[in-house]
Every structure is written in C-alpha cells, then in structure tokens.
Amino acid sequence: MKVGVVGLGTMGAGIAQLAVEAGLETVGREVTDELGEKARGRIEHFLSRKVEKSQIDSFDIGLLSLTTDVSAFAECDVVIEAIVEELEPKRKLFAELERVCRADAVLATNTSALSVTEIAGATSTPERVVGMHFFNPAPLMPLVEIVRAERTSDGAFGTAYALGERLGKHPIRCHDTPGFVVNRILIPLLNDCVRVLDEARVTPADLDAGMKHGAGWPMGPCELVDLVGIDVHVHASEALWEKLREPRMAPPARLVAMANAGLLGRKSGRGFYEYGR
Ligand code: 3HC
Fold first, then answer.
1. Which fold would CATH assign to domain 2-175?
2. What's the rounded Cα separation, in Å, for the pair 187 and 244?
C-alpha cells in the first residue's frame, strides 16, 4: 500500500511518521522543500528515539518521499489531507486530488471539526471520501475516528478503517456530525476550562494542576490547548459553534485574542506558557 499525506505540519508529519513506522511507502507534500525537509527531520528524530528506547528495531526513512507537487499522489492507494483547518482550501485540494489520483484511490481528511460531506462535495466522486481524524500527538495518541460522510462507500470506509489499524491505531466508527465523537465533547469542555480561568481568577498553572490532580487528566487544559494550537482550537470551536449554536461551543474571547496576537501555543513558542525553541 502506498500512502500520501498532504501537509506535513504537526498532524501530517505525525501521520507520515506512523506510515513510515508501519513500513508503508509514503509520499509527503509540503508547499516548500524547506518545510518538507523540516518534517522529515522531525520524523527521523522521533523514530530514532524509538529505536534508542528499543520500542522498534529499525525504520527505513527511505520509504518517505517528499514533494511540493500534488501530482506525486498519482499512484497512492490512500491520500490523507492534513492542511489548514479551513473549508475552502480543503475543498480546492480535494477537487485537485480527484483529478490527479487513481480512480480507486481513497481520499481521507484529517479535519477536526469541519464537515467531511462538505469537503467531499467538492469532488464528483464523494463516495471515495472519508474522514480519518487523528489526535495530537498522532504518533502517541491511540485513537483514530473513521468518519462516514453522507455518500462514503462501504469500500472506502473499510479501507480507511483497515489503514487505521495498520498504522497501529484503535479506530472507532462514527458519522459526519459536528466534532464527530471526541471533539464534540472535548472542545466545549476545554472552552469551559478557559472561561473558568477568568471566572475563578485562577492561574493557568493552578487550573492545569486542578484538572490533572483532581480529575486525572494526563495534561492540564491550558497545556493541552497549547499542544493542539490555539489557532487550531479556535477554528474547530468556530466550526462547532457555526453548526450547533450552543454558547459553550463559541471560542472564548481570551483564546481569540491569543490567536490574533500570534500566541499559538507550543508551535509559536508561546501560548499559556513559554516554550524553548
Ligand atoms: N512521535 C514519537 N514520539 C514522540 C512524539 C512524536 N511525534 N512526540 C513526543 N514523542 C515522545 C517524546 O520524545 C518522549 O520521549 P523522550 O522524551 O524519551 O524522547 C515520549 O514521546 C514521551 O513524551 P512525554 O514524556 O511528553 O510523554 P507523556 O507520557 O507525558 O505523554 C502525551 C504525552 C501522550 C501527549 C500525554 O500527555 C497525553 O495523553 N496528553 C493528552 C493529549 C490529548 O488529549 N490529545 C488530544 C488533543 S485533541 C485533538 O488532537 C483533536 C484535534 O482535532 C484538535
């Protein structure tokens, strides 16, 4: 099986890493060679750490080929999209993928909260479009949601499910509803946490300690939003709010202000916390 990954940011690089680790030929696309090389460096680093820690025997980074050109996906069996979390760029990409990919290739989106059906609607073959929603950090989080859009075929759904298993994940099946399963619950919950910061006049560190030590979370909500990316969380939150109109879904003003100020969390070096770069 040959897998394509479009966008090698945090999520895309993590997905490409899983594919390489699973021994699959992988084509990764970024907009510049430099960004592609940066992702390859990250993938090599994490896989080398796994070898050092005896979690895997070896890996073959030669399985990963980099490109800036979408036509390099022509021979892929499955292409997973992990680009910016906005509907129009995704729809444009899927229309392009439909043109360049084999007719039997499955086209998957890693969208967090956009409608897979609306993305699929940009193609004339929506039956081969499916959601494959990984969680951040993709190499460490065991879950992948396999999302059935209105017109997804059983064949495409089955291929995506099997690929999820092949990548070592625990797939769950769901339908194309806003936020699918986990984000439908997690995003308003994280929004509540951020609102509590102001309401209870508690510091991010104390709120995080509260949820870790009082609710058993593996990391605190502020650390988690910093990891996910403030901008990614705001986009997902806006998408849920647009569809469901529940006040808890709307992104808290504090997060919108942080996103506008470029405080995006770990990836920008500063969010609720500061990170060495
Ligand atoms: N690939 C492989 N290994 C990686 C890695 C990667 N991309 N990133 C980090 N690691 C490695 C680190 O290198 C580290 O090993 P090393 O220090 O020996 O080199 C190892 O993983 C463990 O790192 P940590 O000590 O940080 O690991 P923890 O045991 O603390 O667990 C965690 C980290 C799994 C992230 C845990 O804190 C956790 O489960 N947090 C919650 C994450 C979560 O909820 N994610 C979901 C977010 S919501 C989402 O993604 C949806 C989206 O649509 C918005």
1. Rossmann fold (3.40.50)
2. 13
